[in-house]
């Protein structure tokens, strides 16, 4: 019995191999086609939401912003389905759970704004009333096999860590303010919003909270996929802004502040990805060289 108790810790440790569980992959495969369909509807046909979507969204820039989040989410979940390391996707799943929970709450708060006779409404409702629990459940299950950091893993620099955490905190605060106090935000926002669309856009901002993971774990593997998703989303939002530039209120200071922030964040994200990808290649080459010797 004594020997068995001594052997237990190594056996338990061997289970923490950082694998992605089957349940996590299955959830990802279920969500990808839903997200891609919503992206096509909202980004390609932003003026037809009354006919094609769960509720009528005006002006056209708002559905394109939501669509940008959906394509970023589709890319994320495609990677989840193929990923071998839990460390690469864990932070993103928590942000997705928050996003889905906020949209579920917004649906209940603005129930009368939705087109109850449209099949898209029932899909929307089923998704956002169940997804927060499903995503959180697979996150909790997968955390049980999360592996501790290895000393040879690439870390982001202290400056990059501060910038990523600061941007993530700003996005989270912005999103929560938009969700909690739409009447305060709507008069100053760069384009016209209703209380419902203000809360929806706020939920999109809250996806940026994934970057807060660097406060507890500075490994590049923890944020690399989040940076990729951010690049996809910001690029599509900026293109959407060009397509629907007539929706923007040029006389509002927040319009130019937000656009400048998006461009700066996109440039910084691309720079971080490029620098860290080079460093990662050098690290891998060095490890292969050490192994050869």
TrEMBL record:
<keyword id="KW-1133">Transmembrane helix</keyword>
<feature type="transmembrane region" description="Helical">
    <location>
        <begin position="90"/>
        <end position="109"/>
    </location>
</feature>
<feature type="transmembrane region" description="Helical">
    <location>
        <begin position="223"/>
        <end position="242"/>
    </location>
</feature>
<feature type="transmembrane region" description="Helical">
    <location>
        <begin position="61"/>
        <end position="78"/>
    </location>
</feature>
<feature type="transmembrane region" description="Helical">
    <location>
        <begin position="26"/>
        <end position="45"/>
    </location>
</feature>
<keyword id="KW-0812">Transmembrane</keyword>
<protein>
    <submittedName>
        <fullName>Uncharacterized protein</fullName>
    </submittedName>
</protein>
<feature type="transmembrane region" description="Helical">
    <location>
        <begin position="254"/>
        <end position="274"/>
    </location>
</feature>
<feature type="transmembrane region" description="Helical">
    <location>
        <begin position="193"/>
        <end position="216"/>
    </location>
</feature>
<feature type="transmembrane region" description="Helical">
    <location>
        <begin position="121"/>
        <end position="141"/>
    </location>
</feature>
<feature type="transmembrane region" description="Helical">
    <location>
        <begin position="162"/>
        <end position="181"/>
    </location>
</feature>
<keyword id="KW-0472">Membrane</keyword>
């Amino acid at each position: 019995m004594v020997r068995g108790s001594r052997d237990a810790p190594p056996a338990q440790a061997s289970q923490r191999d950082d694998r992605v569980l089957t349940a996590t992959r299955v959830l990802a495969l279920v969500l990808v086609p839903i997200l891609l369909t919503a992206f096509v509807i909202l980004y390609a046909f932003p003026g037809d939401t009354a006919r094609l979507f769960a509720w009528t969204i005006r002006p056209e820039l708002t559905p394109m912003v939501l669509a940008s989040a959906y394509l970023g989410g589709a890319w994320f979940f495609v990677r989840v389905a193929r990923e071998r390391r839990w460390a690469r996707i864990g932070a993103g799943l928590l942000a997705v759970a928050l996003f889905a929970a906020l949209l579920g709450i917004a649906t209940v708060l603005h129930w009368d704004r939705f087109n109850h006779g449209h099949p898209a409404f029932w899909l929307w409702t089923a998704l956002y009333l169940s997804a927060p629990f499903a995503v959180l459940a697979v996150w909790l299950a997968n955390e049980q096999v999360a592996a501790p950091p290895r000393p040879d893993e690439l870390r982001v620099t202290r400056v990059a860590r501060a910038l990523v955490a600061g941007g993530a905190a700003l996005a989270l605060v912005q999103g929560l303010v938009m969700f909690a106090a739409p009447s305060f935000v709507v008069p100053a926002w760069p384009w016209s919003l209703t209380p419902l669309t203000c809360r929806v856009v706020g939920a999109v901002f809250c996806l940026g909270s994934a970057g807060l993971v660097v406060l507890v774990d500075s490994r590049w593997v923890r944020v690399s996929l989040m940076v990729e998703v951010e690049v996809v989303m910001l690029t599509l939002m900026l293109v959407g802004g060009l397509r629907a530039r007539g929706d923007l209120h040029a006389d509002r200071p927040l319009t130019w502040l937000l656009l400048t922030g998006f461009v700066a964040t996109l440039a910084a994200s691309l720079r971080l990805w490029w620098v860290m990808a080079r460093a990662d290649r050098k690290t891998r080459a060095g490890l292969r060289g050490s192994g050869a010797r």
